[in-house]
Amino acid sequence: MAFTLRINGTERSVEAEPDTPLLWVLREQIGLTGTKYGCGIAQCGACTVHIDGVATRSCAMPVSAIGPEQQIVTIEGLSPDGSHPVQKAWVALDVPQCGYCQSGMIMAAAALLQQNRNPTDDDISGEITNICRCGTYNRVRAAIRQAAADGGPARNG
Q1: Has residue 154 got a pLDDT over 80?
Q2: Residue 155 has pLDDT above 80, yes or no
Q3: Where would I find the 2Fe-2S ferredoxin-type domain in this sequence (predicted)?
Q4: What mean pLDDT is predicted for residues 9-38?
């Protein structure tokens, strides 16, 4: 089946089975490999993208559930040059170790800051449910707080 998707501000046409996860369309057909595969059951968050500004686990989102008017933003579309406040805070505070989960974690953090300009640690813990095998959660919290202080609300694409 043919689907029209708006990804990072660009309209894209793809052919896929209706139950194909958005993750595989993004990675294999569009070539946006910053969104990672982790668990395949929407638990770990490595595949997090924004759909209309909402952090969404793309491994469990069938492509057929995305309307042609909906806006998808991947880590590649968050900022063209890494200047998004969350990305800058991640670098400044050396958040990642292995880095595998970080694109999904950054996308979840950016969506949180879009909704809540000054999240508490409880807010962060409640919204950022991504799993990091390296356990950099304290640095994640610190980076989200820094991004909130430095950049205010996150911006999409």
Answers
A1: no
A2: no
A3: 1-78
A4: 98
Segments in 40-157 forming alpha helices (H)? 75-78, 85-92, 102-115, 121-127, 137-151
CATH architecture for residues 85-150: Orthogonal Bundle (1.10)
Domain ranges in the chain are 2-73, 85-150
Instruction: Say yes or no to pLDDT of 136 above 60.
Output: yes
Domain topology for 2-73: Ubiquitin-like (UB roll) (3.10.20)
Per-residue confidence at 41, pLDDT binned at 50, 70, 90?
very high
DSSP state of 118: S
- Beta strands in 40-137, from DSSP E residues, in sequence order: 48-51, 54-57, 71-73
CA-to-CA distance for 7 and 25, rounded, in angstroms?
Answer: 11
Tell me if residue 3 falls in helix, strand or coil: strand
Radius of gyration of the chain (CA): 15
Beta strands in 18-145 (DSSP E): 48-51, 54-57, 71-73
